[in-house]
Amino acid sequence: MKALRKLAGGEGHVELVDIPTPSPGSGQVLLRVKSVGICGTDLHIWEGRFDKVRPPVTLGHEFAGEVAELGPEVVGWQKGQRVVSESQASSCGTCVYCEQGQSNVCPERLAYGYGVDGGMAEYALVRADGLHALPENVSFQQGAMVEPLAVAVHAVMERGVTLGQGPALVSGPGPIGLLVLMVLAQAGVPALVCGTSKDQARLELAARLGAGATVMVDQEDLGQAAQDFTSGLGFAAAWECSGAGPALSAALTNVRRQGEVVQVGLAGGAPTVDVDQLTLKEITLRGAFVHNRETWERAVQLLGEGALDLTPLISAEMPLGDWQSAFELSRDQAGIKYLLRPGE
Ligand SMILES: [Zn+2]
Ligand SMILES: [Zn+2]
User: Three-state DSSP class for 272?
Assistant: First the structure.
């Protein structure tokens, strides 16, 4: 089968190669991949800027497909069934976090696409207990976006304690920021989305997706816009999805007293922020990292109920063979989410 693999460490070394189609062992299912999303992580692996990758490995952790083959002792699934696979390939199962259903922070968590072979291939070998059936109204393309949606659902519904107590700030209108906005909007929380003038098209999309206001922080006064949007009170909560230090500072400045900031974006360094604001305003600062099984159930349910439509975020779906142009378009931020279609 054709698979897009990282063959060695460093920059590049990503190639579409032929490898044997794997067969499922106990507890595993072989998926015929129908759609797989390109994520920032895949770009970082391509550029040699992601040290958790274990080459040689097949890329892709956002994928949906059909059950092609069941391993021994696998029950509850049938060939041909439409499913999405969780991105977590394994966790230890015995640590305090795993025992509480929070394997997202298990120290031994491994994910498809960099720790274990992932979904940028005609077939993917996955754990049967990480599958979720796709409701009939949810396409494979939307199925491939359940992973980033689950990141947003976890950040908003599972890590946001003040959800619904007032207007929210979302910084960084990339795929995750826009999904956070959509989850907030369907929960009835008014949100202001900010970015820079480079994000103009993404901010326009944010407005169409339900943002109450949008701000380009290098051209407009975010503080004034925040005052106007929140009737002078400040935001009840902020979701920082850009990973930019100044965006975290702006979140701390513009949340109200006893407000909350959820850090979703990774900064890749140590940004300088005014910690005194945490103290003086009694701000709660929390991190949000990926998702758990329950999060995936929530995300699939939201799509099944039609509460969210992710199609406006899909910029294009291209054959797996055209991966390089799709990666380049993603890197150049010429759109929101690019999907690859294996098997042709
Ligand atoms: Zn991702
Ligand atoms: Zn564990």
Answer: coil
